[in-house]
Amino acid sequence: MDLSQCYKIINASPNDSLTDIKRKYRKLLLIYHPDLHKENKERAQEITKQIINAYEIIIKSLDASKKIKLEEKRPTVEELNLLIFQISGREFGIKISLIDEIVRLKDLTLEEVSIIYKDIPFVWAIGEKENKVIIMWNLQKQLNLKETTIFSDIASHYVVIVNLDDMKIGFLIEKITGVMRFSPENITFSSSSEIKIIKNFVKTEDKEIGIIECENLLSI
Description:
By secondary structure, this protein is of the alpha+beta class. The protein is about 25% helix and about 35% strand. A 6-stranded mixed β-sheet has the order 9-1-2-12-11-10, with no helix packed on it. The chain has a 6-stranded mixed β-sheet with strand order 3-7-8-6-5-4, with no helix packed on it.
């Protein structure tokens, strides 16, 4: 398989940044995840193998370290409207503009995934509600927080569903704290944050809240 074919398979271009290449690759892994194609699971597995192979060839051809260095820039920050919520007793925020809806976990039909890919290791289940497919993302694990049993005290858990690249991604949370608006002077940036999906923080009188960069879930 030559390099041009590889780019075509993952819907990318040699001119794309490394961030865009990763995002497009991981989006395809989600779209063709075999657990979303139960009627033709074997075919979906074949497609995902081609996608993974093409991506690995592309990555080998790139000087990834230079691309990463060039892309590590402070983003432009504007006023933010955030949903504040708790996971493992800690507070985080998500931009309200990205949220599709918030539902109770018990209102979803869930099925744990049978295949976990190393490049999207936080996908733990496929949810369904009113013919809407929701890819359940283990935010707790990605944030390096102490994990609790997913189905413990099920009635008290919510799922925040966000729109991401024409897909529905669901985050299991414990508690909704509220909705808050922050001006740019209350937002700080940290390129050294150990948690890659958090680069911006907002400050209140007594705490600092990490903002989940949902747009970066597939590109980190």
